[in-house]
Design brief:
Helices cover 37% and strands 14% of the residues. The protein is of the alpha/beta class and 380 residues long.
Length: 380
């Protein structure tokens, strides 16, 4: 299993690390890891580089590209390669036939946002020199990424939203395989009266809009957990609002405790490809307030699991919705939430992924369709 690097404790990173438990005999490779993972058990993880992960995006990307290009020979003799991320596919040598090697690519996001969708892929306050370097890298990387995609047997996507992005860009139909949630670690507990936002405190997560909404809801309590580069600005925004409390922690146990005791979770990010935070909320029996963007509508497609705000919601729209949500109404949704979360369980995912990995590579099949053209959702 190959993934770009361990930068933040986001959904893709958690998913990749969790695969060790589902595929215990597999090796897990990253280019490098950041200081956020210093306390994690990475004994079973292989790193191509022991250098600290650069905080400069252009340098971080270039080192990752270089690392996987140099490692091509290392990965030639493996029976199966399960690749994900933007740069790990470069470990595939497009000039070398796959032969008996099975190659599967799992897409967590739309392809290379900084290359194919610059308005959504360039950090707003990024230094102009860094932004220019990222742009150059994107132009260089696009044809090589596409060549790598042509070299895989199957393309999987974490949602129909992500799958549609690959179809739109490359004409590649993908199989949708939602990532797994360890639903067994969550349990429902009575609400202590707070709503919870536990998204990373970064601009694209729109936590600022959640805080702004609750400034106008003095009789509703909000707990803002997690951390991120926007933390100080969010605290400043909430100044004077006694109903808003910050818990600056990314400790899973702390987050889980807050989630299990909340009334409902609020997660309204910009074009998020999947939304594991919403699944975790449902697993705790708590409905979610989310947004009609990205892959989030897929999760909340079942009746009684939550509410969807229109795309690009305003704080006023969120405040209006939350003002009508009661603890009693949320408690009545418990069973529907838990049933929906069960559809994203680990056993279903492992069974579906096992079938994909067990199918023969194109090099051993009499039929050789274009990669990823076995379309549709994989049923667990």
């Amino acid at each position: 299993m190959l993934y770009d690097f361990l930068q933040t404790r986001g959904g893709a990173e958690r998913f990749t690390l969790d695969l060790r438990k589902l595929l215990p005999s597999a090796e897990l490779w990253f280019q490098a890891a950041s200081e956020h993972f210093a306390g994690c058990d990475l004994d079973a993880v292989h790193l191509l580089s022991r250098k600290p992960l650069s905080t400069t995006r252009a340098l971080r990307i270039s080192r990752c590209i270089h690392g996987f290009l140099r490692a091509r020979r290392r990965f030639r003799d493996y029976d199966t390669l399960l690749l994900s991320g933007h740069y790990a596919p470069l470990a595939i040598d497009p000039g070398r036939p796959s032969g008996s090697q099975r190659r599967v690519y799992y897409a967590h996001t739309a392809p290379l946002p900084f290359a194919y969708d610059p308005p959504h892929g360039i950090i707003a306050d990024e230094h102009p020199v860094t932004a220019a370097g990222v742009s150059v890298l994107g132009a260089w990387l696009k044809p090589r990424f596409e060549a790598a995609l042509r070299g895989v047997d199957c393309v999987l996507a974490n949602s129909s939203f992500t799958a549609s992005e690959y179809t739109r860009r490359f004409g590649i139909a993908t199989q949708v395989l939602h990532p797994p949630c360890d639903t067994a670690q969550y349990r429902w507990r009575p609400s202590d009266g707070h709503f919870l936002s536990f998204a990373r405190q970064e601009g694209q997560k729109r936590v600022d809009r959640v805080v702004a909404a609750f400034r106008d809801l003095p009789h509703q309590r909000l707990v803002v957990a997690s951390d991120g580069s926007d933390h100080d600005a969010l605290v400043q925004l909430a100044q004077g609002a006694e109903n808003i409390r910050f818990v600056r922690s990314i400790d899973p146990q702390v987050i889980r405790d807050l989630l299990e005791r909340c009334t409902a979770a609020i997660h309204i990010p910009e074009r998020e490809p999947f939304g594991m935070s919403v699944v975790e909320s449902l697993a705790a029996g708590k409905p979610a307030v989310s947004v009609d963007e990205g892959g989030l509508p897929e999760i909340l497609s079942s009746e009684g699991c939550g509410w969807l705000l229109p795309a690009d919601p305003t704080p006023a729209q969120l405040a209006e919705l939350v003002s009508g949500i009661t603890e009693q109404a949320c408690a009545q949704r418990r069973r529907a939430c838990e049933a929906r979360a069960a559809e994203f369980g680990r056993d279903r995912f492992a069974e579906s992924l096992g079938r994909v990995l067990a199918s023969p590579p194109r090099g051993r099949r009499s039929d050789t369709p274009e990669p990823g053209h076995a379309s549709g959702a994989i049923q667990g």
